[in-house]
Write a structure and sequence with these properties.
The complex is a heterodimer of chains A (about 200) and B (about 400). The longest helix of chain A has 26 residues. Chain A is built from ten helices and two strands, in the order H-H-E-E-H-H-H-H-H-H-H-H. In chain A, strands 1-2 form a two-stranded antiparallel sheet. Chain A is globular and about 50 Å long. Chain A is mostly helical and about 200 residues long. In chain A, helix 1 packs across helix 4, helix 4 packs across helix 10 and helix 5 packs across helix 10. Chain B has a single domain, classed as Neuraminidase. In chain B, about 15% of the residues lie in helices and about 40% in strands. In chain B, strands 10, 11, 12, 13 and 14 form a five-stranded antiparallel sheet that branches. In chain B, strands 1-25-24-23 form a four-stranded antiparallel sheet. In chain B, strand 2 and strand 3 form a beta hairpin. Classes of the chains: A mainly alpha (about 200), B mainly beta (about 400). Chains A and B meet through helix 3, helix 5, helix 7 and helix 8 of A and helix 1 and strand 14 of B.
């Protein structure tokens, strides 16, 4: 199956969110939107060392995981709609991403014989693992986490992307970093608020 | 429709997708190894009656200042040997390309090298930036298709490598599209290849790979006959082992030799399995030295094992051949390697005879290929008769001592 459409489906929200964040100093919405489109166009047309900026980005990260797409969509939803997203949604999502990251990355680095990444090639193991987590989160009534995991599962099951490993659809290192940043920011804000109350 | 109902449909669709692909892992890594069919005793006695043969040849560097990391593939249908290596202005430069040359058994010379792959071509096909090319590994499967695995780097040094492959259905004349193997969760970096894969009985391919990012450890990748990663098996962990060589000894037993990158004493590492890859032993050091350099090994049709390695604790100016009785692991014979011959030995410690590759063709000839000071690729061809001669000479010398 040609995976090109999937590359664009995953990359476009991420690129759009990055461009939108870069142009945060522009307050006029329409102007910012236009400039954002221009920036995205440049990503595909400007060439460095005989390769477009997009080729460089793909060299670094083949396809963004659904965690990164999720963060991008949450950011864009907050920025572009008047409806204020519950902070708890992003916070829960960030903790879930961090949980998955810590169960994957240290073992994949070769710290032991156990390789959690290898489990991602085994559909049944992954199904049981993801199913259990999905149920757990389903009952916590947070929509974002089950939506994220089932979308990743769906993309993996139909092999939309380049990777045959479930982990690559769930999480990538950039999403892991973004999740940490969001948690750190939330905790800092919480700490500052408490100090203000005490004072 | 409520969000919850929509969610239910989403989950059901995902599960159906799983059912569709669930057959992937039914056979796993644990299909028995496919070992080369052993020649009959008549054939073997015929081999022993052969005249000893030992030939050395250089392959032209195609005008490149640096050539390195050669690999070999044997096409039994045409009795041709294909060599692939990378060459360019310096290691890791953007002008590094993968070159190939052909050698028909019985002829004196290799064909003129020709450029097969450039970074630009790989970049266009993979639709991503490619900074450099590295280690090619060639392999001929049971259907006489040549698989060419090679390393690409988009970001950073060799620790940023990913493995790619392409397949030729016409005996190396042309190759199909380049495919990328996804093998790690860190932006798919830090997987490299160096030594030949092995085909297992169900047609799957076991590719020995290693990691260099933070940890230095060896793994086996199981690929389907279509080149899709099915699963992988970690052989070591930590920062000690690189460039594994997988040698099946019989349907259940196999041994993996590895370059040692740890703390002294510098010796070749090995792990072994007695259940077709389900479990592997802990890494153990052989008596043979290893100056953190690649080793090559092969199991001969006559069951013995041969290894080509840098016979020094610190430098690569000595390249030697060693021999071991290749019977069952239970006999403990794997550690009884003995030196047979030096392909290269100089006093200059800056000389580098490295990255050997070892292969036995259908006709019984054994081929060794290695980087000769990174300026040339050298090919040594010998037969089992020459090998017996060396074994006898070695035994006589030992008795004299």
């Amino acid at each position: 199956m040609d995976i090109l459409w999937y590359v664009y489906v995953t990359w476009l929200p991420v690129l759009f969110a990055c461009c939108w964040a870069l142009l945060c100093s522009i307050s006029q919405l329409n102007l910012r939107l236009c400039l954002c489109m221009v920036c995205m166009g440049l990503v595909f047309t400007v060439s460095i060392a005989n390769a477009s900026v997009f080729y460089h980005l793909r060299g670094l990260l083949s396809e963004p995981s659904w965690a990164l797409v999720g963060f991008s969509l949450l950011y864009l939803a907050r920025e572009l709609s008047n409806r204020q997203l519950q902070k708890r949604t992003v916070y829960t999502f960030s903790w879930a991403v961090v949980f998955f990251g810590y169960s994957l990355y240290p073992l994949a680095l070769g710290l032991t014989y156990m390789d959690s990444y290898a489990l991602g090639y085994e559909p049944w193991v992954a199904l049981v693992l993801a199913g259990g987590l999905l149920l757990a989160w389903w009952f916590t009534r947070t929509l974002i986490v089950p939506l994220w995991l089932t979308t990743a599962l769906f993309a993996y099951a139909y092999q939309f992307g380049e990777s045959p490993n479930l982990w690559d659809y769930i999480i990538d290192p950039f999403a892991f970093i973004v999740a940490h940043m969001y948690i750190a920011r939330s905790l800092w804000a919480h700490y500052k608020k408490r100090r203000e109350v005490i004072e | 429709m409520s969000l919850r109902a929509l969610g239910c449909l989403w989950v059901i669709a995902s599960v159906f997708g799983f059912v569709d692909v669930a057959h992937w892992s039914t056979e796993g890594l644990y299909a028995s190894y496919q070992v080369t069919s052993l020649p009959s005793s008549k054939q073997r006695s015929g081999l022993h009656k052969e005249e000893p043969k030992y030939l050395e040849r250089m392959i032209g560097a195609a005008g490149q200042p640096l050539v390195h990391s050669a690999t070999l593939a044997w096409m039994s249908a045409t009795k041709e040997l294909y060599a692939y290596w990378y060459g360019g202005s310096r290691e890791g430069a953007r002008d590094v390309a993968i070159y190939t040359a052909k050698y028909r058994l019985g002829e004196d010379q290799w064909s003129e090298p020709k450029q097969l792959l450039t970074t630009q071509r790989v970049q266009v096909q993979l639709q991503r930036f490619i900074k450099k090319l590295g280690n090619p590994v060639a392999f001929t499967d049971a259907e006489q298709r040549i698989w060419l695995f090679f390393v690409t780097v988009s970001v950073g040094g060799w620790a940023g490598s990913a493995v790619n492959y392409m397949v030729s259905d016409d005996g190396g004349q042309s190759f199909g599209p380049i495919q990328r193997l996804v093998t790690t969760p860190f932006l798919n970096i830090s997987t490299l290849v160096k030594n030949h894969p092995v085909m297992v009985q169900n047609g799957n391919i076991v590719l020995p790979v290693y990691h260099e990012f933070m940890g230095k450890f060896a793994e086996l990748l199981l690929l389907s006959d279509q080149g899709q990663v099915l699963t992988k098996k970690r052989l070591t962990w930590g920062r000690d082992a690189l460039q594994p060589v997988l040698l099946p000894l019989n349907e259940q037993e196999a041994v993996v030799y590895m370059r040692f990158a740890g703390i002294e004493p510098n010796r070749i590492l090995y792990v072994a399995t007695q259940d077709a890859g389900v479990h592997f032993s802990k890494p153990t050091k052989l008596a043979l030295p290893n100056p953190n350099a690649a080793v090559a090994a092969v199991r001969l049709n006559s069951q013995e094992l041969l290894m080509v390695y840098n016979n020094s604790l610190t430098h690569r100016n000595v390249l030697s051949l060693s021999f071991a009785e290749g019977s069952a692991l239970a006999e403990g014979s794997l550690e009884r390697w003995f030196w047979l011959y030096d392909f290269e030995r100089t006093e200059n410690e800056l000389d580098r005879f490295s990255y050997p590759v070892l292969l036995q063709d259908d006709e019984g000839s054994i081929h060794v290929m290695y980087s000769y000071n990174r300026r040339n690729i050298k090919h040594v061809e010998f037969n089992e008769a020459w090998l017996r001669q060396q074994v006898v000479r070695h035994q006589l010398q030992r008795e004299e001592r």
